[in-house]
Design a protein that fits this description.
It is globular and about 40 Å long. The N and C termini lie far apart (about 60 Å). The protein is built from one helix and ten strands; from the N terminus they run αββββββββββ. A hairpin with a 5-residue loop joins strand 1 and strand 2. The strands form two sheets. The protein has a five-stranded antiparallel sheet, with no helix packed on it. The chain folds into three domains: about 30 residues; about 45 residues, Roll (SH3 type barrels), CATH 2.30.30; about 45 residues, Myosin S1 fragment, N-terminal (SH3 type barrels). The protein is an alpha+beta fold.
Length: about 140
């Protein structure tokens, strides 16, 4: 009987230790930011809006983003979205695109494609704008 209790304690301690290691490995894998200096991103500012930015440097869990006005901020993965390259868009695609006047991202729909640009009708209204395709995300 004592042997069974000892074995149980051994296995429970082993499993607890293994679970702690697994959680730590998952945390490290999930917190790794796959961005590089020079990458164009949408980065969340203190006002809650997403702005165009460029990555200056990264650590395992955060990156320093430089915004269009020259200000910088260290941000975690949840506040950075890499702007994908080589994505094809079509008329009618719902996008998250860079508003030309304030360099923030807003919801819209592509109404027309003109070369490397698209005319975006904004969900909140206003005049449609021409936005470079490399400054938008599919929704």
């Amino acid at each position: 009987m004592k042997v069974r209790i000892t074995n149980y304690l051994f296995y429970s301690r082993f499993l607890t230790g293994a679970m702690i290691c697994l959680v730590a490995l998952l945390f490290l894998a999930c917190s790794r930011i796959n961005l590089n200096p020079g990458d164009a991103v949408a980065a969340k500012w203190t006002d809650g809006k997403w702005y165009i930015a460029k990555i200056n440097k990264c650590t395992r869990s955060a990156c320093v983003a430089e915004f269009h006005d020259g200000s910088t901020r260290e941000l975690g993965a949840d506040s950075l979205k890499k702007i994908p390259g080589g994505v094809s868009f079509a008329v009618g695609t719902k996008v998250w695109a860079l508003w030309p006047t304030d360099n923030a991202f807003y919801d819209g729909v592509i109404k027309k494609i003109e070369g490397d640009n698209a005319v975006v009708a904004w969900d909140q209204g206003g005049t449609p704008s021409t936005v470079p395709l490399n400054r938008m995300f599919k929704k």
